[in-house]
Amino acid sequence: MPIYLAKYIKPDFKPQIEFFEGANVGDDDLVVLLYHLEHACKRIASLVASPFNFSLGKLSVKSSSSGSDRDAPKPLDIVSNDIVLSSLRNSGKVAVMASEEDDSPTWIKDDGPYVVVVDPLDGSRNIDASIPTGTIFGVYNRLLELDHLPVEEKAELNSLQRGNRLVASGYVLYSSATIFCVTLGSGTHAFTLDHSTGEFVLTHQNIKIPTRGQIYSVNDARYFDWPEGLRKYIDTVRQGKGQNPKKYSARYICSLVADLHRTLLYGGVAMNPRDHLRLVYEGNPLAFLVEQAGGKSSDGKRGILSIQPVKLHQRLPLFLGSVEDVAELESYGNVQQTVNPGYEV
């Protein structure tokens, strides 16, 4: 009998499934929040697959701040952001939402127990070519000790929590299949959308990333901008001269969720050595999910989840994947790319 995502997160369902033992599904507030996130991602999946998004993609959107650390938003990013915000408002369980598409967090509800950080549509520049995209999210408890502060201040400080305080995180991959991959702090599980029923069905129970893979995922067209340590690591593993005697293959989609999903299933390492990806919206949620699957996260020197964010759109290098692969990469030292000439795409 299929196990549906909706059945374990609907408020009227008390799960008795062993792989959720020890997780936070007994918290009714979190249950309601996840149900509304699931609904938002179904709407985004439909939007991404719609033939009408091609005309939407030709529109231009100006960034709200010329000095912002954010990339210029695209119409589909904005629509996806609005969908997630609307769903979180309707849940009644969220105090603040911080989004990669907004310069500052949105305060939603004074007594909402949760804080949500989100990248509503990662990889949106790929949509016109039908390349996979995704939604990334993380959930924290609201910091009650900040309740006395002004709204703008407490909204920002709630959103700048370290990744090791996450209570849930996940991504949704919009590709040949729509896959909702989530951790509630007790293992990582993936559900695939059944279009005949409109429900997410459990397809990957208790994912365990292999301790070592044979794939690296990085844009090695930037090889000559890399530091010596990273070049040496890549040269070594693709010749089969590393700790793993097998020759590594490159697999790079340039869509973070897609590259990470493949790495989660097959092992290896997915990386961006530049200080390009966002700690709050991408690094922390994906690191938590990978580590719950038995993997390892790093910025090249230290674990991602231990890093204290100091600003909302803070960027950093990101290395995610198999424990042994990421550890081997770190051992080379000097793997963070500091030369960022700026690439026109």
From TrEMBL:
Superkingdom of this protein's organism: Eukaryota
Keywords associated with the record: Carbohydrate metabolism, Hydrolase
EC number, UniProt record: 3.1.3.11
Pfam assignment, any one: FBPase
Catalysis performed (reactions): beta-D-fructose 1,6-bisphosphate + H2O = beta-D-fructose 6-phosphate + phosphate
InterPro entries: FBPase_C_dom, FBPase_class-1, FBPase_N, FBPtase
Domain Fructose-1-6-bisphosphatase class 1 C-terminal: 209-332
This protein's record includes keyword Hydrolase: yes
Transmembrane segments: none
Domain spans labelled Fructose-1-6-bisphosphatase class I N-terminal: 27-204
The keyword Hydrolase appears for this protein: yes
Protein family: Belongs to the FBPase class 1 family.
HAMAP family: FBPase_class1
Name recorded for this polypeptide: fructose-bisphosphatase
Species whose genome carries this gene: Camelina sativa (False flax)
Gene name per UniProt: LOC104757410
